[in-house]
From TrEMBL:
The chain crosses the membrane at residues 21-45, 65-83, 104-123. It comes from the Bacteria. CDD domains: SQR_TypeC_SdhC (cd03499). InterPro entries: SQR/QFR_C/D, Succ_DH_cyt_bsu_CS, Succ_DH_cytb556, SuccDH_FuR_B_TM-su. Membrane-anchoring subunit of succinate dehydrogenase (SDH). Keywords: Heme, Iron, Membrane, Metal-binding, Transmembrane, Transmembrane helix. GO terms for molecular function: electron transfer activity; metal ion binding. This is Succinate dehydrogenase cytochrome b556 subunit. Belongs to the cytochrome b560 family.
Length: 124
């Protein structure tokens, strides 16, 4: 009986995931977060339709620390997904596929999303 010496897959602690792969996974996660956030938005709008008591309750929930944290995360997800979607539009026309360009545009996406999120919360 002979044993085969096949290479093993890189271990999780050894393998360093590429930045573009992390951005791709984050894009999918923020898409799901936006769907959940839309349900929260629907709850807030429905509470306004149900009257002042329901709206006051929704305002209390969304105005709490946890509610504001969720809204901040939803805002960050919105701007990240938007900026990364614009990046994908450039890719759709064949621009920015080079590894250096993809890395640079990914860093721009993260920075722009952070700046837009903070600016929105400062203005609001």
């Amino acid at each position: 009986m002979t044993t085969r010496t096949r290479p093993l897959s890189p271990h999780v602690q050894i393998y360093k995931m590429p930045f573009t792969a992390i951005l791709s996974i984050s894009h999918r996660i923020t898409g799901v977060a936006l769907a959940v956030g839309t349900i929260v938005l629907g709850y807030w709008l429905a509470s306004a339709a149900y009257g002042p008591v329901a709206y006051g309750h929704a305002q209390a929930v969304l105005g709490s620390f946890l509610g504001k944290l969720v809204l901040f995360g939803w805002t960050a997800a919105l701007f990240y997904h938007l900026c990364n979607g614009i990046r994908h539009l450039f890719w759709d026309v064949g621009r920015g596929f080079e590894p250096a360009a993809a890395d640079k545009s990914g860093r721009i996406v993260v920075g722009a999303a952070a700046v837009l999120t903070v600016l929105t919360w400062i203005i609001a």
